[in-house]
Amino acid sequence: MAREVVALDAGFRATLTQWLVFPAGAYLMGSGRHDDALARMQEALGLYDKLIGEQPGSEELRYRKAWALVNLAQALWGKPDHAQGAQRAVEATDLLRQLATENPGRFRGGLGDWLMYPAIPYLRQSGRRDQALARAQEAVDIFTALNATDPAGYGPKPAAAKKLVADIQAETRSGDAQSGDAQSGDAQPG
Q: Closest by alpha carbon to 87, among 100, 65, 72?
């Protein structure tokens, strides 16, 4: 029905675009119709690109595109297409980072949240630990700064981000040690 409304009044394109992601895409994912959900979310991204092209200064449209990307990341991860899910999560946080640079009061906390989930876990589980670690350190910086001005709003978030950094560093050291053991073991005669 929303497509019919848009055919009559193009002013409703942003609403249609949002609805393609949620509820349509989310509900389709929830019912196991992954390909249908992904098609709707990809359509939404294309429409957001058109709308942004028409209104390049629109902060709201760029935020909605980032929101569509983070939803697409979760849908791809659930399919499962982990490589694409991680990539879309990175794209979502990259776009939100641009917005947070322009308007930190509105977008910085959300960037920290999206770094914590889904970007860092998806990168980490995809074996991209260096990228996950860099983003975890970024989350520490974000939440530490936000906690300084609003401890009630951000209380446990800096500690959670710091723990994540420590966990990834421990995994990296463990992986390096195992890799070193395997290399030294390969050099020994059998």
A: 72
Q: Are 51 and 14 in contact (CB under 8 A)?
A: yes
Q: Report which of 85, 174, 1 is spatially closest to residue 93, judged by C-alpha positions.
A: 85
Place of tokens 């290399």: 183
Q: Is the pLDDT of residue 12 over 80?
A: yes
Torsion over CA: 125, 128, 134, 135 (sign): negative
Give the C-alpha separation, 103 to 82, whole Å.
31
Non-local (6+) Cβ contacts of 16 within 8 A are: 2, 3, 5, 6, 47
Distance CA 166, CA 133 (A): 9
b (16+ CB within 10 A) / e for 104-142: eeebbbbbbbbbbebbbebbbebebbebbbbbbbbbbeb
141-148 mean pLDDT: 97
Angle at which helix 59-78 crosses helix 34-54, to 10 degrees, equals 160
